[in-house]
Design brief:
Layout (H helix, E strand, L loop, with lengths): L1 H6 L1 H7 L1 H13 L11 H23 L20 H9 L3 H19 L2 H10 L3 H9 L4 H28 L2 H19 L8 H26 L7 H8 L2
Length: 242
């Protein structure tokens, strides 16, 4: 079935919406032994929008809660990689608890920011074109997530940054970070190492967005692979056709 759809993609893109609907119906009717009625172009787009909406809502709901990032090893924000020397020096000074608290508060800020993603994602989904839809449908695992990355990353950066900044203040991240960084920066005057000047807002914002897309892709691929994840009739028809 997938091969037949792929074979007609050039026709789809050249012929316009009315012919798209006709071709989709013909292709489905030619599937031997199939009892599924032909899918129209509007059904395909509707199904993809449903899939993306379900996926992003699930992703946001599991990341924007307490420990949504911290307890997920795939997306947990580590101590800033550019400050690893500072981390080790802090541990040597007996400040391991302070280091752990920094990691916790970094993830709290990411969890706060994740809640801002849903409307941005949903707006991109609403504006999906016919070409976008068939590219996603036939693009395999992660295709929908790649579409969302292209459409939303800049807007997510803009939306997340002030939320992260507020969250950094709310969880008192700088109260844990600044004393360690200040002590380290005083020490490196004598060691010749570079001082730490990490932009924590930028670090949290970028890592929060990266982590969110990891979970979005997991949700997308569940729908592609697992019939049980297709929670509506439209999803079952569209993804069952593959």
């Amino acid at each position: 079935m997938k091969k037949l759809i792929i074979a007609f993609i050039p026709v789809f893109f050249l012929a316009g919406c009315s012919i798209l609907e006709e071709k989709a119906a013909i292709l489905n009717s030619q599937n031997e032994g199939s009892t599924t009625q032909g899918l129209t172009n509007s059904e395909v787009i509707s199904g993809l929008k449903e899939a993306l909406s379900v996926g992003v809502n699930n992703a946001v709901s599991v990341t924007s809660v307490t420990d949504g990032f911290l307890d997920n090893s795939k997306i947990k924000l580590p101590f800033p990689p550019s400050a690893q020397k500072m981390k080790q020096r802090a541990i040597d000074w007996g400040l391991e608890g302070q280091v752990d608290q920094i990691v916790t508060t970094l993830n709290r800020a990411a969890e706060d920011a994740a809640g801002e993603a849903a409307p941005i994602f949903l707006n991109a989904i609403k504006n999906m074109t016919v070409n976008d839809g068939f590219e996603i449908l036939n693009g395999g695992e992660g295709a929908a997530t790649r579409f969302l990355k292209r459409q939303t990353t800049d807007e997510l950066m803009t939306a997340f940054s002030p939320v992260v900044d507020n969250s950094i203040n709310k969880v008192k991240l700088t109260e844990y970070w600044n004393p360690v960084a200040s002590r380290y920066n005083q020490a490196v005057r004598f060691t010749g190492d570079d001082p730490v000047e990490d932009d924590l807002n930028k670090y949290v914002t970028e890592r929060a967005i990266d982590g969110l897309f990891v979970v979005v892709e997991e949700e997308e691929n569940k729908i592609r692979k697992d019939p049980k994840a297709r929670v509506t009739q439209t999803l079952r028809r569209v993804f069952g056709s593959l």
